[in-house]
Known about the structure:
The chain is mostly beta strands. 0% of the residues lie in helices and 50% in strands. It has no helices and 31 strands. It has strands at 4-5, 12-15, 21-24, 28-32, 41-48, 51-58, 68-72, 78-83, 85-88, 94-102, 105-112, 117-124, 129-134, 137-142, 150-154, 161-165, 168-172, 175-178, 184-188, 194-197, 207-210, 216-220, 233-234, 236-240, 246-248, 254-255, 263-266, 272-276, 278-282, 290-295, 304-306. It has a 5-stranded mixed sheet, with no helix packed on it. A hairpin with a 1-residue loop joins strand 28 and strand 29 (278-282). The protein starts with a strand and ends with a strand.
Amino acid sequence: MAGRLADRIGTRLLLATSPPTVFDADTGVQGGVGGLPGGDRQVSVQRVGHTPVILTAPECRGDTCEPAEVYAYPGALVPLGQAFSVAPAADGEGVWQIRPDSPGNCRLQHVSLAGRVLGTGTVASCRTVVRQETSHGLLITVDNGNAETVDVLIDPATGRSVQQAPRILAATGDRLVLGGLTELTVVDLRDGGRAKLAPPVVQSAPYVLPNREGTLAAVDFGTAAWRNTDTQTRDLWLLDLRDLTWLEAPSMPYTTGHLRTSGLDWSPGGDLVLDDGVVATWHPGEPAWRLGRAKIPADRQSPGVSTS
């Protein structure tokens, strides 16, 4: 990926290593997060408002997976209990969790980032995946991993279905982005309007990451087998959710060896942040990516979230 080497890009990430790594784009590894369970564990990180949330769980044994220990990390660990799945609440001040309740049963529960349980929750399948809450509802995936998998936007208070589709790629603000075999559909939840648009790269399920304001979405048309070879490529585009126009990010597509172990996020200042060997930032409209000076060590190359 081409770009320009900046004196400093001033970006810090929390990388989903075990334990998680604090990484400065310009100076390198800043250290790990202490106080987490040790051993060989599955770790993921996500951003809830301005706060990183860490999930750490034992490695699955076959089809059997234990719930993750969940922590908010505003600079010190705040336990949020155990959960099979976690999603940001719409206000950025809490999370929705699929929590173990009784043997074989789970509960959909709202928990603040201070660790306080909010409300009584509702019964839910342990196979339900919570993904994102907006003012119009909570996006979930039902029967994850089965042939009957379906994506549903629900009212979390009642469980009532607001919208349902075989593949909802993202929910943000007043809009849903639906996947299709050859086209995408943007649903306006205010009036139910639907607009179909042709993607710049034909792919049924690209990765869609809306920005913090819900006005733009980064869409990654990455492929692990470019033109039927073993070459991995990434092709990042921006979709303007207001007028449904496309803009390709600079220097795309490019080859990468980290398609499955790299991450995307949006910074508070509206930069798209990519960790792929180094940390790169790009503000929509700029002619090139700004590259951090520090390389990400190969054993720490993992998806990360922006903490600055």
